[in-house]
Amino acid sequence: MTDPQLVLTERVQQALGSAFGSEYATEDPLIRPSQFADYQANVALSLAKRLRRAPREVAQAVADHLDTSDVSVEVSGPGFLNLTLRDGWIAEQAGQRLLDDRLGVPQAAPQTVIVDYSAPNAAKEMHVGHLRTTIVGDTLARTHEHVGNQVIRQNHLGDWGTQFGMLIEHLLDIGEEQALGMLAAGDGNAFYQAARHKFDNDSAFQQRSRGRVPLLQGGDPETLRLWREFVDYSNRYFTKVYRTLGVTLTDDDIAGESKYNPMLADVCDELERMGVAEMSEGALCVFPPGFTGRDDQPLPLIVRKSDGGYGYATTDLAAIRYRVRDLKADRVLYVVGATQSLHFQMVFAAARMAGWLHDEVRAEHVQIGSVLGSDGKMFKTRSGESVKLTDLLEEAVVRAEAVIADRGYEPEARRQIARQVGMGAVKYADLSVSHDSEYVFDFDRMLALTGNTGPYLQYATARIRSIFRNGGVDPEWITGPIVLGHPAERALALQLLGFGTVVAAVADLSEPHRLCNYLFDLAQAFTSFYEGCPVLKAEEESVRQSRLALAALTLRVLLRGLDLLGIEVPERM
């Protein structure tokens, strides 16, 4: 089983080698879907100058040497190759997909892939800014597992630092029970702001807070106990949010800043011994080449401050060293806001200077764009505060329940469907745009049952299920064979063959929006098929079985694709 685009790429490359010599057999044929054929190859236009021949002449030479056993070819325009696959080949490949548990998704040579995502701060609430890092990271983790990689999820919590001196003292002031109750309920911001206000306005409290920090860093048992309470109660809240969202992070995936704290001194010592880090104005710094400030002077990456403290750069370098040396990572994905781009560029460069990153390991910053309000500015409440993620998710469910309120469901079923539709709408709206782009958060648009939305795809799967329910047929028992007659059957079958390549591309490029676009195109192709090709009422039994097979395969691909996106699908809608 092969994706048609890959088959045609191989065929055209063979023709290039036969026509112009083996040195041309690895050229990219530049094959793209076309409105004039199934695909179009534009390689003749890119090669014409090198070959010193007219593009149309080059295209004709390729066409003359092309294996046309499963494809017809036509030279058009200035030198395009229009490629049309034969119906029998498409039908045969679709039939094989129906019998394939992997639905054509290739099995990768296994790698160890670390996905660093979500990363909220202990003792603070999760807000809408954490939504994208959590959703995108979870989809990438699911996808890498599906293609056969060993995935290690890493939730890099902000669970260490001098702010805990202030927080612990405030906890002691108001009492453990009240403080931990606020954290468990997701009221961390109110707790943090109250502590900060006291720190800024009460000199005695400020002095106590500063005195608490060395006790924490020095391992004082009672201070560590209180710190652990902070982290544990924060994690209970985070876990509740993750369960609501339906993401796969667990407590076992927590690898916060505190994990790397014991390694920081050794990281600095090693950098200094290797000559990678040097003292500059009292601080230990790495100066990665190519990074300069506004004054055109080398830009420092500070790994130990002049007061002896450590910062994010030190922790991130310790994490890279640990992930490569101890976890044996082949690839590390940092699903973090785009505003951290320079930081990660410098951290990666410093790690390469130290030899902790090398050619066999890919470290990538999967940049996450901002979520905007309808005014085009950062998404905030009317009072100008960050929107609590729990409030946002609750509102999504309430609004989804209103959308399906007139469909006659029993209250419990309605609540269950509303939860699936609400979460699916929020996730899909996020995943369907490029992860480094900004997007406007709009409940009305994301909950629509038409257009490129999560509910539209959920509804498409529910409609396919209704076909089998009405026909008294289990889609798992459908085997075909598939025979293509109507143009809509052919278009649907051809679309189904692209699933494996799209999933592989998502894993390779870290671009979940590609899968969203594919699933939307597939749902649209099925809608055209459904409207033009009677399934249960087909006049001939062979046609009925073929169309049931196409419907069953579409259902399986939609369900698998939505599962990779972390989107649940109601049985009915």
Description:
Belongs to the class-I aminoacyl-tRNA synthetase family. Its EC number is 6.1.1.19. Keywords: Aminoacyl-tRNA synthetase, ATP-binding, Cytoplasm, Ligase, Nucleotide-binding, Protein biosynthesis. Residues 6-85 form the Arginyl tRNA synthetase N-terminal domain. InterPro entries: aa-tRNA-synth_I_CS, Arg-tRNA-ligase, Arg-tRNA-synth_N, Arg-tRNA-synth_N_sf, ArgRS_core, DALR_anticod-bd, Rossmann-like_a/b/a_fold, tRNAsynth_Ia_anticodon-bd. With 573 residues, this protein is α/β, with parallel strands linked by helices. It is built from 22 helices and 13 strands. The strands form four sheets. Strands 1-2-4-3 form a four-stranded antiparallel β-sheet. Helix 6 (163-174) crosses helix 9. The protein is globular.
Give the end-to-end Cα distance, rounded to a whole number of Å.
Answer: 34 Å
Shape: globular
Structural class: alpha/beta
The biggest beta sheet reads: 4 strands, antiparallel
GO molecular function: ligase activity
EC number: 6.1.1.19
Enzyme class: ligase
Subunit structure: Monomer.
Identify the notable features of this structure and list them briefly.
573 residues; 4-stranded parallel sheet; globular
Short description:
The chain is 54% helix and 10% strand.
Set down the secondary structure blueprint:
Blueprint: H1 4-20, E1 31-33, E2 39-41, H2 43-51, H3 55-65, E3 71-76, E4 80-85, H4 87-98, E5 112-116, H5 129-147, E6 150-154, H6 163-174, H7 176-184, H8 188-201, H9 203-218, H10 221-245, H11 257-260, H12 264-273, E7 277-280, E8 283-286, E9 301-304, H13 312-325, E10 331-337, H14 341-354, E11 362-368, E12 371-372, H15 389-403, H16 411-431, E13 439-440, H17 443-446, H18 454-471, H19 487-496, H20 499-509, H21 513-532, H22 541-564
Parallel strand pairs: 5-6, 5-10, 10-11, 12-13
Antiparallel strand pairs: 1-2, 2-4, 3-4, 7-8, 8-9
Helix pairs in contact: 1-3, 2-3, 4-19, 4-22, 5-20, 6-7, 6-8, 6-9, 7-10, 8-9, 13-14, 15-16, 18-21, 18-22, 19-21, 19-22, 20-21, 21-22
